[in-house]
């Protein structure tokens, strides 16, 4: 498998899942700020994903898979022994709901405008309000729970990346003690710590 990624981007969730699973995976860094966008091997990235976004996962049979929520489920299903998503039924749907929540309510709905260099201040203010509501919702859910749903899943990997972005944006976590403790716990998980350290090093080098 090949993962097209950018350091500290949402693609880090798949790196975490791959480390959890012990997957044999190659990482291809994409410069999404370059014009045209380039993969480190020189490939023009738009030929890999016409949307120009990471992550993209190339499966061993050559299939190109896009969208975090789908890639994460693919990795989880490809390595069932890692237990990164329940195989079927209501428990699987709960993890799928969390993947969808993280993708739409946090990633696209709140963080894209907050991280954008071109979004107007009104859009950012609105996104900050939405984010506060959603972090409060997560905080309430995580009270008395170690993970989003039972055991560590690909949804936790994806949520962790959003929480690193919240830290980068200096979002005050004091109103969210359960979420804050969850973030600290995940940070010490070996797969997460390894992925974070590797990507943060690459991120700093590029800055
Ligand atoms: N809906 C997509 C969003 C992916 C996305 O937002 N990727 C960002 C990095 S976190 C990206 O590649 N941005 C570069 C760009 O849009 O030019 C998914 O879930 O995979």
Describe the protein.
- The protein is 55% helix and 9% strand.
- The chain is an alpha+beta fold and 207 residues long.
- The protein folds into 2 domains: 2-82 and 192-206, Glutaredoxin, CATH 3.40.30.10; 89-189, Glutathione S-transferase Yfyf (Class Pi), Chain A, domain 2.
- The chain has a 5-stranded mixed sheet with strand order 3-2-1-4-5, with helices on one face.
- A hairpin with a 5-residue loop joins strand 4 and strand 5 (64-66).
- Bound molecules: glutathione (GSH).
List the helices and strands and how they pair.
Blueprint: E1 2-5, H1 12-21, E2 26-31, E3 38-39, E4 56-58, E5 64-66, H2 68-78, H3 89-115, H4 121-142, H5 154-168, H6 177-187, H7 190-206
Parallel strand pairs: 1-2
Antiparallel strand pairs: 1-4, 2-3, 4-5
Q: Total number of β-strand segments? A: 5
Helix content, binned percent: 40-55%
pLDDT averaged over residues: 98
Number of helices: 7
Give the SSE string: EHEEEEHHHHHH
Whole-angstrom Rg: 17 Å
CATH topology of the largest domain: Glutathione S-transferase Yfyf (Class Pi), Chain A, domain 2
CATH C-level of the largest domain: Mainly Alpha
**What's the end-to-end separation, in Å?**
28 Å
Bound heterogens, unique: glutathione
What is the domain tally?
2
Beta strand %: 5-15%
Which regions contain 5 or more consecutive residues with pLDDT less than 50?
none
Do you know the CATH architecture of the largest domain? Up-down Bundle
Shape category = globular
Output the structural class: alpha+beta
Q: Which strand order spans the largest sheet, edge to edge or round the barrel?
A: 3-2-1-4-5
């Amino acid at each position: 498998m090949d993962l097209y990624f950018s350091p500290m981007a949402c693609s880090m969730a798949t790196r975490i899942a791959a480390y959890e699973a012990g997957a044999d995976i190659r990482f291809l860094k994409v410069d999404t700020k370059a014009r045209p966008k380039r993969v480190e091997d020189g490939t023009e990235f738009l030929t890999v994903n016409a949307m120009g976004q990471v992550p993209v996962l190339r499966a061993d049979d050559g299939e190109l898979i896009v969208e975090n929520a789908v890639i994460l489920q693919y990795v989880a299903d490809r390595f069932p022994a890692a237990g990164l998503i329940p195989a079927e039924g209501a428990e699987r749907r709960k993890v799928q709901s969390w993947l969808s929540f993280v993708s739409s309510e946090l990633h696209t709905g709140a963080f894209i405008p907050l991280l954008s260099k071109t979004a107007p201040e009104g859009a950012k203010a609105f996104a900050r309000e939405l984010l506060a509501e959603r972090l409060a919702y997560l905080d309430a859910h995580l009270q008395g729970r170690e993970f989003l749903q039972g055991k560590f899943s690909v949804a936790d990997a994806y949520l962790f990346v959003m929480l690193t972005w919240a830290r980068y944006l200096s979002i005050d976590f004091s109103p969210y003690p359960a979420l804050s403790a969850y973030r600290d716990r995940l940070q010490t998980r070996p797969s997460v710590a390894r992925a974070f350290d590797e990507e943060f090093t690459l991120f700093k080098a590029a800055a």
